[in-house]
Amino acid sequence: MPVNFSNFVTAGLALLALVLTTCNGLTAAERSATPPVGYQLVWSDEFDGAELDMSKWSHRCPGPRRDAVNVPDAVSVKDGQLTITTYTSDGKHCTGMIGTQGKFERCFGYWEARIRFEDTSGMWSAFWIQTPTFGRPPNDPAAAGTEIDVIEHRVSDRTGKDLSGLIHHALHIGGAKSQTHVAEDPNLSTGFHTFGVLWTEAEYTFFVDGKVTWKASPVSKRTQYIILSSEVQDNSWAGVIPADGYGPLESSKTRMIVDYVRFYEPKPNSRG
Q1: Is 201 exposed, middle or buried (0-12, 13-18, 19+ CB in 10 A)?
Q2: I need a surface site. Which of 40, 131, 199, 264 has the fewest CB within 10 A?
Q3: What are phi and psi of 30, to 5 degrees?
């Protein structure tokens, strides 16, 4: 029986394509976001370098914060991903926080990050958008801005209850009552997921893996900036710090891993 070499060639090319389009176990399709219709990508960090791009980010709130210390060593970039590691050294808990304040700030648009949470009791991680004038003036989100918590993630509360599958969205307005929304996704604690918010002049629309999870208003009408963070606080809404801490930097398994952060704005012919 003659051998059909074309079948082998086709199979080989398909396998090669799969290998070439995979990065860190993610296919090109999985790494690509679909922005809202009429929007275009204008800013992003794909974390393709060997260190944090300081032209885009700054280390935020260095030094003591809550029950940890924010240190640059907790933030690393490797293999197309940014990692914020929470660890314990000489009895001191350390973690990290970065932001784009003064380097990238926008009003309105679609903001998205692709994140894998590997959190532990006593700490939580977040992707949020903050205003430089929070609460000034009070009770005026349009002028002062709004803290937009696109996603906050924790694995437990003070009672030790498993909360790893909960999605926390929130809006904080200085001087006014906060708005919060909790959704459930049992797969949230495994693998990467996309978290986004479409911020228009009328409302915020929150997305998880491309699905709408919450809509809220009133909205900020001033420029704001991006923050990626992990925070530690004992006996808090995120539970109790483990008795032996989080382990050293080199082996800690308490991490927030970010594949990308992207911002899209309306195309010129889509405005108005």
Answers
A1: exposed
A2: 40
A3: -70, -30
